[in-house]
């Protein structure tokens, strides 16, 4: 990785050796931030700095500056963002571009100005061109047009990667980026329209089972392929990158396994125990046809995922029954 040459002198900060360090996990109540919080707590980190959205709105520059000046976190993980599935991305393009640019710009700049040792920014596999080569290598970035349903969010995420790179180059500051594939797990967003496919189907199948419905509507044609990763695997990868990676280039984080939406729906039906039929609503968009990432760079550093989709779905449904469907 030629780009690493630029950063050799930046890789001296151990993360795991310093469990009393102040670590700011932005977005700690969300799917990803909560998993990172659980992982860091399990590992023995004792000084997590956390603020809910109500306590600190990360789109407000002066509030973010005041927070960083006061807390001066040593490590920063950016898991706060405006996030949603295909419908939300398509319906609220202004929110997806503006809120994400604001949050990430404020957090990255303030972290740098207030002496953080290292920052990890999270993007998403939607940064790649709609028709990127499969599996998608990191260097496919900016080689073609984006998927229209999420280009606004993707542009913000690409700006986040580039901002980390620019601060590395100009300020010799250890900012890195990870690009996760589609995620799922505890504390996901189960909204009927604005969520991602996996929590949306879990809720829809569950409600259909409980209500004795004969059929469940699933969006699109069922043919798109998606790669899913359990959020606990992502949290493990985040800690791994904080410890082991200090490079200019963003790193893909995936499971390496893809399923069609039809296969996902069939698996969900089985896990939830719904016995009716699936009906496909082809008026809804399919989005990108396929986005399997090439995560071999992260694998070559020594990280591998552990949770299978079937086990992950069963665990998440158990969590849903205990926590959401009260
Ligand atoms: N979910 C997925 O499939 C994927 C997620 N990612 C990335 O992972 C990161 C986290 O996503 P995920 O956990 O799924 O999202 P969630 O929506 O579950 O969590 C996002 C968190 O950010 C907080 N937040 C949003 N806006 C603000 C704000 N203005 N000020 C302060 N906090 C705010 C939210 O708080 P509140 O809810 O109170 O607004 C929430 O706690 C994002 O960068 C996303 O791009 C990447 C690939 C896939
Ligand atoms: C993580 C990723 O997430 C988004 O991209 P996406 O992968 O297209 O997201 P999705 O989970 O919403 O849909 C996946 C597929 O599933 C189909 N589908 C069927 N039935 C439902 C359904 O009920 N809800 C949803 N949401 N989708 C459904 C849907 O039609 C599509 O074919 C972007 O926000 C992007 O920005 C991003 O980063």
Automatic annotation (TrEMBL):
GO biological process: 'de novo' GDP-L-fucose biosynthetic process
TM spans (from-to): none
InterPro entries found in the cross-reference section: Epimerase_deHydtase, GDP_fucose/colitose_synth, NAD(P)-bd_dom_sf
CDD domains xref list: GDP_FS_SDR_e
Family annotation (Pfam families): Epimerase
GO molecular function, one term: isomerase activity
EC numbers: 1.1.1.271
Keywords: Isomerase, Multifunctional enzyme, NADP, Oxidoreductase
Record field: catalytic activity: GDP-beta-L-fucose + NADP(+) = GDP-4-dehydro-alpha-D-rhamnose + NADPH + H(+)
Pathway assigned to this chain's UniProt record: Nucleotide-sugar biosynthesis; GDP-L-fucose biosynthesis via de novo pathway; GDP-L-fucose from GDP-alpha-D-mannose: step 2/2
Residue ranges annotated for the NAD-dependent epimerase/dehydratase domain, each copy included: 23-254
Family membership: Belongs to the NAD(P)-dependent epimerase/dehydratase family. Fucose synthase subfamily.
Stored HAMAP family: GDP_fucose_synth
Protein name per UniProt: GDP-L-fucose synthase
Natural source organism: Glycine max (Soybean)
The organism's taxonomic lineage, starting at the top: Eukaryota, Viridiplantae, Streptophyta, Embryophyta, Tracheophyta
